[in-house]
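About this split. The held-out portion is used to measure sequence recovery: a designer receives only the structure tokens and must propose an amino acid at every position. Recovery is the fraction of positions where the proposal matches the reference. Here is one held-out target exactly as it appears in the evaluation file.
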């Protein structure tokens, strides 16, 4: 057997508990990396997102979600029609490339979901996000529009595309 095929017994398998790992914030949402590309041979990454009531995410494409707790409403565009799908605990939602979607927590309780990310998605988060701790409060109010526009402007270089943002209404 080749030495290249041996995995040292102290390496490899590990657990990442709830609330553990690297925390970051982008667009007034907190995320926690559960596995990054370096952990998976750069095949994928996984992050957890607590979704507070009333929080929504700008429309963008291509991810897989798994609902850990609560309910999350996902917007999808089919044949020029917007419709909403409610996913509950244990439900996966698969968003193929080039399928715009958004999501929001419209329930009365916190929801938690896992999301996959490819290496480009992880690189975008690494550039655009701000490191936080798990106990840091979310910023009050919507993200500052200029900062959000700058953050979203980086996305195309990582093959991530967001629908145009509308200016906030008074």
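Reference sequence for scoring:
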């Amino acid at each position: 057997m080749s030495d290249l095929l041996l995995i040292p017994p102290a390496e490899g398998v590990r657990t990442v508990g709830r609330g553990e790992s690297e925390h970051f914030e982008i667009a007034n949402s907190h995320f926690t990396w559960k596995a990054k590309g370096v952990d998976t041979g750069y095949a994928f990454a996984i992050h957890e997102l607590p979704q507070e009531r009333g929080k929504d995410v700008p429309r963008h494409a291509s991810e897989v979600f798994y609902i850990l707790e609560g309910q999350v409403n996902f917007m999808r565009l089919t044949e020029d029609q917007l419709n909403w799908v409610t996913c509950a605990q244990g439900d996966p939602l698969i968003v193929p490339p080039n399928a715009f979607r958004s999501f929001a927590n419209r329930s009365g309780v916190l929801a938690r979901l896992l999301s996959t990310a490819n290496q480009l998605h992880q690189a975008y988060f690494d550039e655009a996000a701000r490191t936080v701790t798990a106990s840091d409060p979310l910023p009050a109010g919507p993200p500052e529009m200029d900062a959000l526009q700058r953050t979203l402007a980086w996305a195309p270089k990582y093959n991530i595309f967001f629908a145009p943002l509308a200016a906030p209404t008074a």
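Annotator remark: Residues 17 and 88 are 22 Å apart (CA to CA).
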